[in-house]
Specification:
Blueprint lengths: L3 H20 L4 H16 L2 H18 L3 H17 L3 H17 L4 H17 L3 H17 L6 H17 L6 H14 L6 H16 L3 H15 L6 H17 L2 H12 L8 H6 L3 H7 L15 E4 L7 H5 L4 E9 L5 E10 L5 H9 L2 E3 L1 E3 L2 E3 L1 E10 L6
Antiparallel strand pairs: 1-4, 2-3, 2-7, 5-6
Helix pairs in contact: 1-4, 2-3, 3-4, 4-5, 5-6, 6-7, 6-8, 7-8, 8-9, 9-10, 10-11, 11-12, 11-13, 12-15
């Protein structure tokens, strides 16, 4: 488990930090639970370790020991609590640790890490506003001290900023921030971690919003390539493939050639669209496969729209200045109606999906004709972007 490494490294750091304090008669009320914490960590008894870490921190506050050590104990407890899924307990510990680090002040990297972890705990609780406040403070430290903060932590801070922009519907701002996050994640050597696939995917969404088909196609190709390496990310790979399908249908010949050249020159060229699909389970691969276009004649033709009205911009989103992107998949029946409508992706989630589903449900088509017979057309892919007029 990746995050658990933080708890282990904090343990080593804290053991070193406590050595001189112990020589100065650190109160038993602090030393004893910390020793119990170390013993529980060594045996993998996480609940016991968490309880002991909490006691050590609280007793240190009561005893008013050196505040730097109080900050270490608070961060140590918060780190373990976060790794155990107890973000509500982790956040106040990291806030306390961050406040102490700012007051001392600790080195910029330590201050940024504590602020970022406080933000991560807030985000895990669904509190985007608090997460943004904490991550903004971490970002300020990164901007002022870029050489002092390692690439791994910098990439975490930048990626959280992108996530928060997406959830706030700040899709227009994501164009630059996703590029920066992707570049930093690559620089940190994290191309095989989920964070790289997710950042590349969000870069694709931002590029779709900017109507840059070639860049979006490349971003989704990279994301699909990386997601396909994970047995747990089949749904994410499928979503990328739906985006790629939609983009390829809309691209000009020149854009397709530019995208092919871009992919061929990239480190991710080995996994083309077809080989990505082959790594997926059968049912996922079949859903993502694109039918060959019909050679149209008097007895064969593709489904053709005859009535397509765009969805209305939700008033609540417009009033809040929220923009968004939605990817949808649906079927066209033998009678030209739409059904089996599903939302493949939406950024942000929960605001634009319903109006898109209602709009698609009212669309009408001339049905697909094969050998003179109307047939069902499955897996039609479309997308909507909800853009407000940019400020002048």
């Amino acid at each position: 488990m990746k995050l658990l490494a933080f708890a282990v490294s904090s343990t080593l750091w804290l053991a070193l930090a406590l050595a001189p304090a112990a020589a100065d008669d650190l109160p038993d009320s602090v030393a004893e639970p910390y020793v119990a914490y170390q013993a529980a960590m060594e045996t993998g008894d996480w609940p016991a370790a968490l309880a002991a870490a909490s006691t050590a921190w609280r007793e240190a506050e009561t005893a008013r020991i050196d505040r730097a050590l109080i900050g270490v104990l608070a961060a140590n407890y918060g780190d373990l609590a976060f790794n155990m899924g107890r973000s509500a307990d982790a956040r106040p510990a990291f806030l306390r640790a961050a406040a102490i680090a700012d007051a001392i002040p600790e080195p910029p990297a330590e201050r940024a890490w504590r602020r970022w972890m406080a933000g991560a705990a807030a985000l895990a609780q669904g509190d985007g506003r608090a997460a943004r406040t904490d991550n903004d403070l971490a970002m300020q430290l990164l901007e002022r001290n870029p050489a002092a903060i390692d690439d791994h932590l910098a990439s975490d801070i930048l990626f959280m900023a992108v996530r928060l922009q997406r959830e706030a519907g700040q899709i227009r701002r994501m164009r630059d921030s996703t590029r920066r996050a992707v570049e930093m994640i690559e620089r940190a050597g994290r191309q095989n971690e989920p964070i790289f696939a997710s950042a590349s995917y969000m870069a694709g969404v931002a590029s779709v919003f900017a109507r840059d088909n070639v860049q979006a196609g490349y971003d989704f190709h990279v994301a699909a390539n990386r997601f396909a390496q994970s047995e747990m990310a089949h749904a994410d790979a499928l979503t990328c493939l739906f985006w790629i399908r939609m983009l390829r249908e809309r691209m000009s010949t020149g854009e397709r050639a530019a995208l092919a050249a871009r992919i061929a020159a990239s480190p991710y060229a080995a996994a083309d669209y077809e080989s990505i699909q082959l790594t997926l389970p059968d049912e996922v691969r079949e859903a993502a496969e694109q039918r060959e276009p019909l050679v149209e004649d008097e007895n064969n033709r593709e489904a053709r729209p005859v009535q397509r009205r765009s969805p209305e911009y939700p008033q609540r989103a417009a009033m809040a200045g929220i923009e968004g992107v939605v990817l949808a998949v649906f079927d066209v029946t033998e009678t030209g109606r739409t059904d089996n409508i599903r939302i493949a992706a939406a950024a942000p989630a929960g605001l634009f999906e319903e109006v898109c589903e209602r709009a698609i449900a009212r669309w009408r088509y001339e049905p697909r004709i094969e050998n003179g017979v109307p047939v069902r057309r499955e897996g039609v892919v479309t997308y909507f972007d909800f853009q407000l007029d940019p400020p002048r």
